[in-house]
Amino acid sequence: MAGCESLQKLDLTANFIAAPAGLLSVASLACNQALRELFLVGNPCAKDDAYRTFIIASLPQLTRLDGTDVTPSERIAAVQARAMCPELVFWALTRGARRRCRSCAHVSRRRRLLECVLDCAA
User: Fold this and answer.
1) What pLDDT, in 10s, does the model give residues 35-67?
2) 70 burial level (CB within 10 Å; 0-12, 13-18, 19+)
3) CA 15 to CA 41: how far, in whole Å?
4) What is the pTM of this model?
5) What is the count of structural domains for the chain?
């Protein structure tokens, strides 16, 4: 896909893309600077709480993900989380942070997942 310089919208709905390998492949779309919209609805990877944060941090050129606008605050939070500890984002996606942090009531909220992982990993 790196050669598709004019690609603006990519619909990968229901293509059985799973974490982590599938998400790492999607992250390789960062070189497609014209890409503005990405649809991954219906894929196993989209069920993970950290999925949206990971994609937004990996593809800063996106303006919409799964038909929903990427908000400025969402982008800032994703970039900050990735900058703090990129391997932690990967850990959250691959190791099932929700199962490891059962005592954290806020784990289901996408924005706080990484905070929970940071707290529980310390």
Assistant:
1) 999 999 999 989 877 788 889 988 999 999 999
2) buried
3) 9
4) 0.70
5) 1
